[in-house]
Amino acid sequence: MAEALEVFRGIGQLVSLASAAKREGRHANDADLSSLENAALVAENGKIKWLGPEAKLPDSYRRKKATDLKGKVVIPGLVEPHTHLIFAGNRSAEFEKRNQGVGYQQIAEAGGGILATVRATRAASEKQLGAIGQKRTDRFLKQGVTTIEVKSGYGLTLDEEMKMLRAAKSLKGARIVPTFLGAHAKPAEYESADSYIDYLVQTALPRIKKEKLATRVDVFIEKGYFSTEMAKRYLRAAEKLGLQGSIHADQMTLSGGARLAVELGAKSADHLVQLGAEEIEILAKSDVTCVLLPSADLYM
């Protein structure tokens, strides 16, 4: 089978973060940003094979049919590291309550929040979720986002979570990084969060790994959801199966999520709204990626 080779010429400006990439993106700064004018780029099977000044384009590529970008700017594809892309329904009624001063945790205790979206998502078919997710993916692509992390977490049973992850893997056009967020909230079917974690560790995680539906797992550490001890048990079980860990950490209260992410070497700690100076220093010295979602807390 012939390899897919693409040659792009006429690039007015090619922006690169090559030096940061050599450090796997750690501790990036302005000095990592480089720019090359009047450039060319060669890609093969979706991966960059050559880039540089167009005047130095090798003859073997110069003879190939090329796409003339007519002076346009080429930048690295953007990465969206935290999405709940696959879900049904909406929480517009809760938005009004939030504007009236009702807290997110109060809404959750009344059966809203995550559990409201769980009910709507369970009622949707895999095909419907895939169609909804594709529309959202297409909007990301139009904004230059080419890699999208996609969490489950609105099924909260193994079958429903697998339905969500299959829908995520069906998405086209972007590189999809599927994350199993089974530990998003305790479903109504379980008496305690601890017993639900037992179920995830003993039954759900091995099945998710076997079916190759996710490469990462996530857990929501917060009062009324999951404790750091529960999260530690869940994340360590995932690590033994070869699944990477991430944490919804310290979003509403300072609940130990950031510290646990550093202790376990998690890939990321997300939200991090309630951090103190000590947590910031600990994270800065670690290899944990801090994912900030500042607009989320304007409506949650």
Could you list some keywords that capture this structure?
300 residues; alpha/beta; Urease, subunit C, domain 1; TIM Barrel; 7-stranded parallel sheet; 5-stranded mixed sheet
3D architecture notes:
The protein is of the alpha/beta class. The protein has two domains: 5-76, Urease, subunit C, domain 1, CATH 2.30.40.10; 80-298, Metal-dependent hydrolases (TIM Barrel, Alpha-Beta Barrel), CATH 3.20.20.140. It is 36% helix and 24% strand. The chain has helices at 18-21, 59-62, 92-99, 104-109, 114-123, 126-142, 158-169, 193-211, 228-240, 257-264, 277-284, and strands spanning 5-16, 34-44, 47-53, 66-68, 73-74, 78-80, 145-151, 175-183, 216-220, 244-249, 268-271, 289-291. A seven-stranded parallel β-sheet has the order 6-7-8-9-10-11-12. Strands 1, 2, 3, 4 and 5 form a five-stranded mixed β-sheet that branches. β10 (244-249), α10 and β11 form a beta-alpha-beta unit. α6 (126-142) crosses α7 (158-169) and α8 (193-211) packs parallel to α9 (228-240). The termini are far apart. The mean pLDDT is 93.
What's a concise summary of this model?
Helix 6 (126-142) crosses helix 7 (158-169) and helix 8 (193-211) packs parallel to helix 9.
Series of H and E elements: EHEEHEEEHHHHEHEHEHEHEHE
The helix content, as a percent range, equals 25-40%
Question: Which strand order does the major sheet show?
Answer: 6-7-8-9-10-11-12
Can you give the mean pLDDT? 93
The biggest sheet amounts to: 7 strands, parallel
- Rounded to an integer in angstroms, the radius of gyration calculated over CA atoms is 22 Å
- In total, how many domains does the architecture comprise? 2
Under the CATH scheme, the architecture of the largest domain is Alpha-Beta Barrel
User: How many distinct beta strands?
Assistant: 12
Structural class: alpha/beta
Looking at CATH, the homologous superfamily of the largest domain is Metal-dependent hydrolases
Number of distinct helices = 11
CATH first level of the largest domain: Alpha Beta
CA-to-CA gap between the ends?
A: 50 Å
Low-pLDDT segments: none
Which fold does the CATH topology of the largest domain refer to?
Answer: TIM Barrel
Judging from the principal axes of the Cα atoms, what is the shape? Answer: globular
Strand content: 15-25%
